[in-house]
Design brief:
- There is one protein chain.
- The protein is α+β, with helices and mostly antiparallel strands and about 180 residues long.
- The chain has one domain.
- The longest helix has 11 residues.
């Protein structure tokens, strides 16, 4: 009982967990157990480039903490400081209000997913690096919405994006955590 209480307190405040890549999605058992506390389907990439590993997993299990309500963030870090993230929320976030170049990915579980490439010169001085992002996707009735993006999720991220080929491969591999 105390163990369950500890996990609830830790995750309510979005504390980051240590990680060591062990599966194709790179999550350890402790990450998977923590994600399952949400009681919702969890989207993860089943392809992770060899040079990348899970950097942290954050869980938001209180609707009072964050704008989108319940959710999670999985951040991967790769050599040369490349970063990408999978985020999920109950809703209320909205899409990125910029124009970009769209690429279509056929995902076995979620169907057609559009990945957009955004250039800094086209979208204002606050954007420091180009990045890729998907829109928010519904994983099914009563579940969370998820998105993929390169960088740390902020326009002022200085992390350059992964290659287009790697991004499309990661998005195509997205599926529900088993």
């Amino acid at each position: 009982m105390l163990h369950k209480f500890f996990f609830s307190c830790v995750f309510m405040f979005g504390v980051n967990l240590p990680s060591f890549a062990v599966n194709s999605h790179g999550l350890q058992k402790v990450h998977i157990q923590a994600l399952k506390v949400l009681g919702k389907p969890i989207a993860v990439p089943y392809y992770t480039p060899d040079t990348c590993k899970v950097d942290f997993v954050s869980i938001i299990d209180s609707v009072k903490i964050q704008l989108g309500g319940l959710g999670y963030k999985i951040q991967y870090v790769c050599k040369n400081a490349l970063i990408y993230q999978i985020e999920a929320t109950q809703g209320g976030i909205g899409d990125i209000p910029f124009e970009g170049l769209d690429f279509q990915v056929n995902n076995k579980q979620f169907g057609k997913i559009f990945v957009t490439y955004f250039q800094p010169s086209e979208n204002g001085p606050e954007m420091k690096q180009p990045f890729y992002s998907t829109g928010w996707f519904d994983m099914g009735k009563g579940s969370l919405f998820f998105t993929f993006h390169t960088g740390n999720g902020r326009l002022d991220s200085t992390s350059p994006p992964l290659s287009k080929a790697e991004v499309l491969k990661i998005v195509a591999s997205m599926g529900l955590l088993k």
